[in-house]
Design goal:
By secondary structure, the protein is mostly helical. Helices cover about 75% and strands about 0% of the residues. It is built from 9 helices and no strands. α1 (about 1-30) packs across α3, α2 runs antiparallel to α6 (about 120-140) and α6 (about 120-140) packs antiparallel against α7. The longest helix has 27 residues, at about 1-30.
Length: about 210
Amino acid sequence: MPEITFVNFFDFIGTLAFAISGIRLASAKRFDLFGAYIIGLVTAIGGGTLRDVLIDVPIFWMQNPLYVVCTGISLVSVMIFGKFIIRQHNTWFIFDTIGLGMFTVTGIEKTLHAPNGYPFWAAIIMGTVTGAAGGIIRDVLINEEPLVFRTEFYAMACAIGGVLYYISYSIGLDNITTGIICGSTVIILRLLAVKYKFQLPILKGYEDEENK
């Protein structure tokens, strides 16, 4: 039971954070309330939905209304504190980063506890999918280039956090400590990458070689 409570807590925080990040971007695109809610919802549940389909378990949000309600709470929060949230240019980034860290943990946890018994490397991939896929869907819907495909340190932060989860788990740390290490690593890496402009190398195309 402690593990379930732990995962639900991370799910709740991650859902609120990702939903706010999606609604914040939707407001910048001048979406109406329904459109903003949908963007917030798909940001919050998109990665987990894909994960559950891939690991062949029931879709999480179709069994628990918490996620739909959390998105509604996020929308109301943006409406009430809208002027403050929208004025802060880094608000979207902060909430997106928190959601990324939280959902990486829940993705790994849920994959490891799935009845089909998946190996750890698959859990790390599913943690990355849970953290990053919702943002991809959001960016596509609002007509932005998906963040994960740019040079920014995004999905790679999830993968590194997943590796640290595995190391922590292997040396016998409990689930809560392991999850905190993983989620904190993702968040810190993302913050440091943006602050110090860490990025992966850009793949040069054939056209780049011809123009030399």
